[in-house]
Design a protein that fits this description.
By secondary structure, this protein is an alpha/beta fold. The chain has seven helices and 14 strands.
Length: 277
């Protein structure tokens, strides 16, 4: 049965984030932050959580290789900056050692007496929000395939890579569907690559999270992203249900017009490691 390989330092898995940084990502969300700013916050939080989950007494263990591709007005390029500039995928311990900066953020927590108080927390930054130009999605998917061909060849017995793609608009360099089908055929001995799509939208209408059909989606672009998405891996269904999502065995790992909490859930569920040891 696929997607059952142990995730260990000898057989890590790979998470590749493909992030739309086109001009339309400057639109404001209900929080007051732009789409680009919010996605960057969620990605940085996800990286930090992966580091925490992988930290033992001897330091950060490399259960995961993690990469970021960003695409927009400057084409497709590695998403990390600073000491990680120039390469797409790194072992998690290398990412932990090359934080860009640490910001202080305010977080609302319980005061123990039924109220809430603001608490200052440290928030590490690896990925910066950017928004400019068009949406070269085809080029981004081709680059993702190039990166993951090499990774799969070098990790043939590992749990296969997961691609988490976040976009808010239609591709400006053609239809990526055929490229994506080839991307999803890349595999290790444990199964094919998994592609999860999150469509960030600020238009009117209801959110559609982890649907089984494209019937409730409002336009051809969202329906195309649904069709491009991998079916929901069985071992992640329990994780999704634990967060209150109604997920069927026929569901696809796709989200449309998610709210803030649902976007966070999308990343957290997508990066669950079923057999980490």
């Amino acid at each position: 049965m696929p997607y059952t390989a142990d995730i260990s330092r000898a057989t890590p898995t790979c998470f590749l984030f493909v992030i739309d940084q086109s001009g339309s990502m400057d639109e404001k969300m209900d929080s007051g932050k732009s789409k680009a700013e919010f996605v960057a916050d969620v990605l940085n939080k996800t990286l930090y959580q992966l580091i925490i989950r992988s930290t033992r007494a001897d330091g950060v263990r490399n259960y995961f290789d993690v990469g970021v591709l960003a695409y927009g007005g400057s084409g497709v390029q590695p998403g990390f900056q600073g000491g990680l500039r120039g390469q797409v995928v790194y072992p998690l311990s290398t990412i932990e050692a090359n934080v860009l900066r640490i910001e202080e953020r305010q977080k609302r927590v319980s005061d123990g007496a039924g109220g809430l108080v603001d608490q200052t927390v440290k928030f590490p930054i690896w990925f910066e929000p950017v928004n400019s130009g068009g949406t070269p999605m085809c080029e981004a998917m081709r680059k993702a395939a190039e990166v993951l061909v090499d990774w799969c060849d070098a990790h043939s017995s590992s749990y296969p890579p997961t691609i988490i793609h976040v976009t808010d608009g239609a591709s400006t360099d053609g239809d990526p569907s055929q490229i994506v089908e080839s991307l999803k055929l890349l595999s290790t001995q444990d199964g094919n690559c998994l592609l999860f799509n999150l469509h960030i939208a600020t238009s009117e209408g209801s959110a559609v999270i982890f649907p089984s059909t494209e019937g409730g989606l409002p336009d051809e672009h969202s329906r195309m992203l649904f069709r491009m998405s991998s079916s929901f891996p069985p071992h992640l269904i329990a994780a999704a249900k634990a967060k209150g999502h109604n997920v069927s065995n026929e569901a696809k790992f796709f989200g449309y017009k998610a709210n803030i909490e649902e976007i966070v859930d999308f990343f957290e569920i997508g990066t669950q490691a079923a057999n980490m040891r």
